[in-house]
């Protein structure tokens, strides 16, 4: 990982929305109990870095899912009994100006949005990814980011897959198909690591990229 001050860096937050806190829709259990606190810490660190280094800012982008499925907690019409709107952001990842929110209705954050154009215009050389869920929208987006070859070469000429950084403890998955949530999460991280991305912890990424 490279310091954001030395390598144009984007931070992509995927589907960190109220609808993802539904108690049963996504599965009987979720991995990564520390997910929310890790999201909050990396977003806080990125914003603090931008305050210190407005000359070399991190590009913070939020991707939100607006599902076409009426029964989905991520459908634009879905409202929880407590009044929370399903497509609204979780409090730990609420966007602030000028952070863009890109709306999609499929898994990959690149489909139906201008994410690729934004990353290319920023001349992004390092992409840090977090969000939900590891095996679905996060995996789809990370794989597509690698296949699009959109990252600029860095000064050291390191391979692109080492500069797509996936935060292991700021992503999460749900149990399904007879497999526990932790297994789903860890298997998908292992599948992505080295081939499509570099899997790191939030703490290590903050220290290496945002200090």
From TrEMBL:
The keyword Hydrolase applies. Pfam families: Isochorismatase. Residues 9-204 form the Isochorismatase-like domain. Keywords: Hydrolase. Gene3D superfamilies: Isochorismatase-like. It comes from the Eukaryota. InterPro entries: Isochorismatase-like_dom, Isochorismatase-like_hydrls, Isochorismatase-like_sf. Transmembrane segments: none annotated. One of its GO terms (molecular function) is hydrolase activity. The keyword Hydrolase applies. Belongs to the isochorismatase family. This is Isochorismatase hydrolase. It comes from Metarhizium robertsii (strain ARSEF 23 / ATCC MYA-3075) (Metarhizium anisopliae (strain ARSEF 23)).
